[in-house]
Amino acid sequence: MPMSEFIVAQEDRSNTDIYKSRKWYSPDYFKLQYAGNIGFLSIGLGYNWWREKAQSTFIYGYVPEHKGNTTIHTFSIKNDFKLYSFYINDKYNVQPILGFSVSLEPGQNSYMRVPDRFPDDYYGPNSFYACINLGLKTHFNFDPQRHFSGIDIYFEFNTLADYLYYNIIAQEDRSDNIGSLALGTNVFF
Question: Which of 13, 38, 75, 157 is the most buried (most CB within 10 A)?
Fold first, then answer.
């Protein structure tokens, strides 16, 4: 075996050994997101799965009082699915993504059971809610010698499933203000 093939084989084996040494429960990335119906700012840990075509992230979102008229804490599970990968000059990629999240807001602004002060069958509980998102993501790999292996940068449009539902069933007074934009990054370990 020529020396160059031996070095490549050694490098491949060492990367495989590192990958195998990771525990199954170790997260693949750290997420930081601005806006997007999860919080003014949110952070989380996530996992790649389904041959790296899907990502699931456990997220904590925070809205400070000066932004939401009260402090809001949100806990979410966000799932994103890569629809396709477009490559530009074999260096850059753009990936359309589609996803959804399920969130819990345990604060004083939300309720699991509708309070008696509201009319019967008029409001539903709002502590749990779902979002649907559509966006674009790009991924950059880092030098293997670095502490982090890569980064995703993404932006997305999302809406609460309730907003979408009520807009569909509304015959006349449809709202144009049902969406939110988010900007975020995933930093891979």
Answer: 38
